[in-house]
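Limitations
The structure tokens in this dataset are predictions for the assembled complex, not deposited experimental models. Users should treat interface geometry with appropriate caution, especially where small molecules or nucleic acid strands are included. An illustrative entry is reproduced here so readers can see what is and is not provided.
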Amino acid sequence: MSDVIIIGAGPAGLAGAIACAENGLRVTVVDEFIKPGGRLLGQLHQEPSGDWWNGIKEAERLHQNAMNLSVDIRCGVSVYNLEKCSQNWNVHTSIGTLTAPFVLIATGAAEYPVPVPGWTLPGVMSIGAAQVMTNVHRVQVGKKGIIIGANILAFAILNELQLAGINVERIVLPEKNPNSQKAGEPEEVLKSLLHASHLAPSPLLRFGSKFMKKDWIRKMGINFYPKNGIKINGTPLQLRKAALEVIGKDQVEGVRIADTDANGKVIPGTEKIYEADFVCIAGGLYPLAELAAVTGCPFHYVPELGGHVPSHSETMETPLDGLFVAGNITGIESGKIAMAQGITAGLSIAKHAGKGKNNINNKLQQAVQNIRTVRQNAAIQFNPDIDRGRSKMKQIWEDQHNNNNQTQEKIG
Amino acid sequence: MSRILNHPIFGKINDRKQVSFQFDGKTYEAYENETIAAALLANDVRKLRVHEDSGTPRGFYCNIGHCMECRVTVNGQSNTRACLTVVQQDMVVESGKLLPNIIRRMVEEQ
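Predicted assembly:
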């Protein structure tokens, strides 16, 4: 039997596994994907230093470290339920039920879908799917693509597709409707892109930031945004065009696109069909938290963190005994933050398990501080208000924790 | 679609072992340790199934196991995700098919 079961072999899960194992705990890591690394596997971008951040190499490094510490890593295993039974957690998986006193949920994020008519056609995929196909499987997703949705993730992956020689013809917005919400409003999209660049003139978005750093774009605003868009390393970003429908018989053949006004309203008579054999939908990320939900862990809605997140402390504990969380399940941030959170969760588990002796508290405090440092040094934020989101969660946790103590004192 | 054998940062891919498998009765070549979804795309096959009720075509969407859009039958096991299943030599993969809609038939017969 293991002391700790970790769900997810991404940056948070593997870093957590290493921290647990270094403190003498026996660890099992399960993951659905065919190999460890999680979404590190697709990542490829240039750091401010000019060095390349190669997620595959990072994943290999973490995997090797974990293996050296005898961590049991099981890939291709799905977890479908999680329940507490007396002192232990039962983790129900596709290879049977695993049991341990501690569980770390590090399931990461999923992509918000933006339904567009015709989006079920083969050849339409999430932007992350294109990233995995390109960088992990090394198979071309198509010859001629259109990205629907303009956000940080879309730019980062556009860059990766271009590096691999994949032709993306244009980036357009989804049609403005209750599904697309702000992602379909040119003014809002431009504002969020400018906001991101203001906080982080980022090499991660080498091409995007060139566009965003142009002062005249800020000043003229969306009203005078060029109809044919502004090129990002050759791919026009067309904030004043909206995708109305993906067309094709058995697979994608094109996208019906129209010009829009500054509010995203379609201008009648401007519709045109643009040929394409693949379409990427970029809706952004949300914490993948179903497994925390089935445990009964309380949740809070914190938009700055990407949506509903399980209640958690700065040391990555949840209110449920023996249940910990780390990585994007706690809020959408970079893989580096996920690693720092994973280390924190691992030390936190070690502390609860009575391991690590006297200096465990110091180590844990250093790890919490390290998360903040990594965040401050981040080249780009998925959400520019991430600090506010983290503070909100911290406040909620402290309020509840203090209330609980007071209630217990009263009862006592 | 062709494979990305040369990449400016990741480098070259060579010497990968090939395996063959069947999809809807036809034989395809895949690389070892490759998913069904990737192998089929590399063979220009995007359509993995039809919707069980409407019959409209479907392919992979999220490519990492979240959306269940790429479900196929693998060696007799239905609802298997093509994006998470590694091709094995002589694996038999069947696309998802149209299923009888019992409720609709009941309504029609009334």
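Some entries come with short summary sentences. For this one: Chain A is about 35% helix and 25% strand.
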